[in-house]
Amino acid sequence: MNVLSATDVRKNWSVTLDKAIHEKPVYIKRTRDNLAIINIDTMKEALSGYRFTFRKYTEDDNSVTLSSEEFDIVVNDKDEYTAELTLARDIKEYAEDFYENFATWSIAPNRRTHIPYVLKALMLDEEVIMEELTCLDGRN
Predict the structure, then answer these.
(1) Hey, is 49 helix, strand or coil?
(2) Which CATH class is domain 3-38?
(3) CATH no., domain 46-137
(4) What is the C-alpha to C-alpha distance for residues 25 and 86, in angstroms, rounded to an integer?
(5) Which phi and psi (to 5°) does residue 125 adopt?
(6) Half-sphere exposure (CA, 13 Å, Cβ side) for 125?
(7) How many other β-carbons are positioned within 10 Å of the β-carbon of residue 57?
(8) pLDDT in tens, 24-46
(9) d(Cα 104, Cα 83) in Å, to the nearest integer?
(10) Start and end residues for every CATH 3.30.160.620 domain found in the chain
């Protein structure tokens, strides 16, 4: 892998950004730190295999409960469409909260696996998150 030094990147910032946007991800090393600059479209493609899954439960009152498999999110609403919309909104809100406290949550053992889903949700609006929802059969 071609890793650039932080000094070279500073000297050629515009060229480095152009490469990351139009060609391929750029990897940078600064002392002991390593990082990557990646185009958002490439990031979306890299995360395309991550889907938001949930279990669906129909309650005795015919309301619908959806329980996220990736996050500790459970919603209940009058019908499946409204519940999915609420779940998509809650996923987006969770992702934004996670990102605001990334330094804490990204190292928490019970939250580290959320990172790819959080990054994906941050790039999508709620309607697209709804399209990314996959239903698994839940048992009441």
Answers:
(1) coil
(2) alpha beta
(3) 3.30.160.620
(4) 35
(5) -90, 170
(6) 1
(7) 17
(8) 999 999 999 999 999 999 999 99
(9) 30
(10) 46-137
C-alpha pair distances (Å), 94 with each of 21, 26, 42, 106, 113: 28, 29, 23, 13, 14
Cα separation, 26 vs 106, in Å, equals 22
**Reported pTM:** 0.88
Do the beta carbons of residue 69 and residue 114 sit within 8 Å? no
Q: Is the pLDDT of residue 113 over 60?
A: yes
Encoded amino acid at 97, one letter: D
Residue 123 clears pLDDT 90, i.e. is over it: yes
8 Å CB contact between 53 and 134: yes
SS3 68: strand
Output the pLDDT for position 137.
75
Tell me which residue has tokens 């990334």. 102
Most distant CA pair in the chain, distance: 65
From the list 49, 45, 65, the residue with the least C-alpha distance to 57 is 65
Q: Compute the residue count for the chain.
A: 140
In the chain, which segments carry CATH 3.40.1620.10? 3-38
The token pair that represents 114 in the structure block: 């959320």
